Here is the input.
Amino acid sequence: MAPLLEQARRQVATTIDTIERLVRLESPSTDKAAVDRCGRELAAILRGAGAQVETIVNASRGDHVRARFGGAGRPVLLLGHFDTVWPVGTLEKMPLTNDGARLSGPGTFDMKGGIAIGVGAMLALQATGTPHAPVGMLWTADEEIGSGTSRALIEDEARRARAVLVLEPALPGGALKTARKGCGEFDLEVHGIAAHAGLDPGRGASAIHELAAQIGAIERLQDLSRGISVNVGIVTGGSRSNVVAARASAVIDIRAPSRDAADRVERAIRGLQPIRPGTRLTIRGGFDRPPMERTAAVAQLFGMAAEVAASLGVELGENSAGGGSDGNFTAALGVPTLDGLGAVGDGAHASHEHIDIDALPFRVALVAGLIARL
Here is the structure.
């Protein structure tokens, strides 16, 4: 594996250039024109690396980009996204900077750095003549808003793959992600009966008071010791202070570490019953990302990555993550999935977003070596 690391060091300027080209083209998920501009640049980069590239046109969101590199055996899928949470114009306030140690800017860490690492891995394999499996790449345009238009495509690609390598950012210190919580969002709407709060309060049934009681019940579902988190993040309701509220609602975020835990808490949410006479509940939503569990297949894949890292002189760690990624979808299909193979850095979705430049050659060599092993 040493030749791969040496090559990754020689081409680090190209890896940085790839990141900068992508970051300069801001790509917020909800701005199709902006995302597609970035996608066209990404397609050009991939063609320059020798890939067969296809743009998958999408009417409602940005177009997705798929690339294929030849090889022998069953393919490996590299997965990630090029949409970001940052609106167009963020670069004016949060410019792309390189101080020699850190490359900072919106989308560097999450996750345009990871895309560049994937491209760099293929360049290193080609430059060293290292045999490898066929490689498919799928870079999507709506991960940050739930992967609504890309999930079926992701799952279809994953079913053909021997393994899925997700180029999302690494955990602190460079550890990989061998488990991720499932992510659920529920809308709870309470219907009450309006009445004058002073003249005739007894004829009303307050949706707000009922919602407050329901929030107490929802909070009791949280069990942090078992990895289940519940958060009522948005609350609305009522019309005037002197009117008994006829309507109130809440948006609930739920994270669970396993399919069984997700099923239990979802049943509990759907089983909520009104407490105050005259009120009724409407419950919508569910788990849009299943948990990524550390199965034997995931552990075996991590073991392979750890062996590659050890051959490069690095001890590789692993841990779980509270947030979800598109790797949740592929892992739920039973396809061996390893996440967090992207950049080392910090500040995802934050103003201090950056990547560690010195770590780039190792991450490129790690992905390249893992592809070769597979």
Remarks:
- The chain has two domains: 2-180+292-373, 182-289.
